[in-house]
């Protein structure tokens, strides 16, 4: 059974930093491309970043200079380092295996941005 569990969300001030984690199990994590997506209040899922099994990365332009996706295959864990967090980053963040339409996601972790 595929299991993904996000953590690390919380309240952060504008301009602050946060690191999200996603613990994965039940599949060959080391050989799987993984993604981070988010859902802001009242909006659909937004793809943010992807990382291949060989650590190649791809980002959506709005977060490219502020967020970093990484992975630790020994720990079966995916990360998203967030810096210079903005109010527009308020959302539930999910790690994703597969496509947005039909892939596996965890329950998500909430990021709230407020001073």
Structure, explained:
The chain is mainly beta and 115 residues long. The chain has strands at residues 3-7, 10-12, 18-25, 34-39, 45-51, 57-59, 67-72, 77-82, 91-97, 104-105, 109-113. A hairpin with a 6-residue loop joins strand 9 and strand 10.
Strand and helix order: EEEEEEEEEEE
Number of strands: 11
Q: Assess the beta-strand content as a share of residues.
A: over 45%
Described by the principal axes of the CA atoms, the overall outline is globular
Compute the separation of the termini in Å. Answer: 40 Å
Q: Which terms would index this structure?
A:
115 residues; 0% helix
Write a concise synopsis of the structure shown.
This protein is mostly beta strands and 115 residues long. It contains no helices and 11 strands.
Fold topology:
Layout: E1 3-7, E2 10-12, E3 18-25, E4 34-39, E5 45-51, E6 57-59, E7 67-72, E8 77-82, E9 91-97, E10 104-105, E11 109-113
Parallel strand pairs: 2-11
Antiparallel strand pairs: 1-3, 3-8, 4-5, 4-9, 5-6, 7-8, 9-10, 9-11
């Amino acid at each position: 059974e595929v299991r993904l569990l996000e953590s690390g969300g919380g309240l952060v001030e504008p301009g602050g930093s946060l690191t999200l984690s996603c613990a994965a199990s039940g599949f060959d994590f080391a050989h799987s491309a993984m993604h981070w997506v988010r859902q802001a209040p009242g909006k659909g899922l937004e793809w943010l970043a992807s990382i291949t099994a060989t650590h190649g990365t791809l980002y959506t332009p709005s977060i490219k200079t502020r967020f970093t996706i990484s992975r630790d295959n020994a720990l079966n864990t995916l990360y998203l380092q967030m810096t210079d967090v903005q109010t527009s980053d308020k959302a539930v963040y999910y790690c994703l295996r597969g496509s947005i339409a039909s892939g596996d996601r965890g329950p998500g972790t909430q990021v709230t941005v407020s001073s």
